[in-house]
Amino acid sequence: MARENPARTLERPDLRRTSLDISAEAMDELSSGATALAMDYFARVSDLPVFPDASGGDAVRRLGSALPVEGEPVAKLLNDCRAMIDLSRHNGHPRFFGYVASPATAPGAFADLIASALNSNVTCWRSGPAGTEVERLVVRWLGSLIGYGQNANGLLTSGGSLANLTALLIALRAKSDANSARTGLWNTRTPMTIYASDQVHMSIPKAADILGLGRDQMRIVASDDRFRLDVKVLRQLIESDSQHGLKPFCVVASAGTTNTGAVDPLAEIAAVAEEFGLWFHVDGGYGALAALDVRKRPLFAGIDRADSISLDPHKWLYTPVDSGCLLFRDEAVVRQAFSANEADYIKVHEQTAEESFAFWDYGIELSRRFRALKIWLTLRYYGTRKISEAISDDNSLAEYLAQRVSEADEFELLAPVELSICCFRYVPREMRAKLSSSSPDEVVLLNRELDELNTSLMHAVQRGGEAYLSNATVKGRFALRACITNFRTTRADIDLTLDVIREAAKQT
């Protein structure tokens, strides 16, 4: 007896000639083949080269560029998808340390399949009742995980850049003249200024540009010897700008900088923001979820005083891209920021507060995919204890890398390890001796030489396929940067990566 298959309901004699519904057999072939492909990838990602042996244009040459007029067989399409996997960089590889990009888990990946099949446009409750309610629940969960409170408000975004842009737009509207949404910033009486450290993520000055503030109105605050925003300098800049006819309105703190993982003194910055009446935004895109590591929680003291916070589950909650989040304290202030954007076709006529909820009242996007499902399913499947342990292990592995670097004669640690980022450089023994005995001018030249050497080593390691590092500039020096946000990484992977660098140095 043939098994029941919902897809068989698609085989109706009344289907229109151009229907894109497919047969049960085709559905079986496509779904089983795609599932097998995903399962095979999860099984072998640790054995693949981190970066493919490929050059620009190889993918299109291999897959072809002709737009088909007639459909192609499923077997060929799956084979081409397999080729795409082989021609990709593998962020889920245990020795991918290049950027803040955690691997996807199987629950998160399959949640994306379900969300895509459902294809809800989660704009408001009436468009996606389940999606809207689950997203609001997930937002509360995320707020509680990082110590922002049990009843956080917010919404999911494509990532930290959009979350930061939205937060600064809200801050601007909250602190500018009442009619700025209609009359524009050029009609405001006083130029407005925003403050962040010299370690701030690039999305913050970019947001200042997009919002029409201008990058010149972005005040860059010096950081201390631990790469944290210097609160004393912050206060001086705010006072000076206020005395010279400017209007300070927002300060951005980092809960884990992209360069070194430093966490700004959040409680001290919150106190300054409160004193001067500034919006206090915390960019926790990378690091806020490190609050799940009990050893690191003291670093995040004061995060509960922020007016808004960005964080990215796809950076360190092991969920697939795209899943960013913006949390905020005062729901009414945020609604006011977007109150001028009403249109007849989006008016809500529901009766209850739950059913009249709309995400467009709190953010920029109108079309919004069901991002919450992968976060919800990941947290439900693993539970917070297991995820917290994975984050703690990532932090411990960065500390282990720093220890191995410090113990080695040919490596130099360039920044303290605060979360899961370690910045270091390769220094040949003979150059180390020269650095300690040369004049200041000679040291400058030696450091330039080391910058060039480490740049070459980074490229060699990346293209070698065994490991992947990125770079950062730390106190003017080129650093090899390893960011560990991967539940597959082990101490053996750390040791092997250092050996890969040593071997690359021999070939340079």
Could you characterize the architecture of this molecule?
The chain contains 16 helices and eleven strands. The chain is α/β, with parallel strands linked by helices and 508 residues long.
Averaged pLDDT, please?
A: 93
Percent of sequence in beta strands: 5-15%
Oligomer: single chain
Structure classification: alpha/beta
Order of helices and strands: HHHHHEHHEHEHEHEEHEHHEEHHEEH
**Separate helix tally:** 16
According to DSSP, the number of beta strands is 11
Q: Which overall shape is indicated by the principal axes computed on the Cα atoms?
A: globular
- Report the span from N to C terminus: 67 Å
User: How is the main sheet built?
Assistant: 7 strands, mixed
- Give unreliable regions as ranges: 6-10
Biggest sheet, spatial arrangement of strands = 1-7-6-5-4-2-3
Q: Give Rg in angstroms.
A: 25 Å
**Helix percentage:** 40-55%
Keywords summarizing the entry:
508 residues; alpha/beta; seven-stranded mixed β-sheet; four-stranded antiparallel β-sheet; 16 helices; 43% helix; globular
Topology:
Elements lengths: L23 H21 L13 H6 L10 H13 L19 H13 L10 H17 L7 E5 L2 H16 L4 H4 L8 E6 L5 H8 L7 E4 L9 H13 L3 E8 L11 H11 L2 E6 L23 E4 L1 H4 L7 E5 L2 H7 L34 H36 L3 E3 L7 E6 L2 H9 L2 H25 L5 E5 L2 E7 L7 H17 L1
Q: In short, what is this structure?
A:
With 508 residues, this protein is α/β, with parallel strands linked by helices. The protein has 16 helices and eleven strands.
